[in-house]
Write the structure tokens for this entry.
Amino acid sequence: MLDQTKKFLRDQGYHYKKTYIRPLITPDNIYVFRFGKNNLNNRLIIRYGHGWTGRQRIKEIDLRLHKQKHPRIFKTERGLLKYLAGHLKQHEQKLEKIEDNKNNASS
């Protein structure tokens, strides 16, 4: 599941960890991907189900990058990859500036 996303993360130098959750109340299955370069502080939550043929169907993908207030919700992996390609580098640069400001203030 999400082979293109895994390949994109590896190509960009990100590490990820995948965990599986099977909630008792809902029929959905959930994968949680935690990813990042140094810390696994970004996460993807993939809610999926199975069709009558047994094929996995993604219902919703929630993306929450580190320090974001609201998750970004996608219906397809293609939309997720388009967002990641445009925003991931900007987000990393913003976090580096914040860390630099903290280090300069404490010095």
User: Anything to note?
Assistant: The first helix runs from residue 3 to 11. The radius of gyration is 16 Å. The longest strand covers residues 42-50.
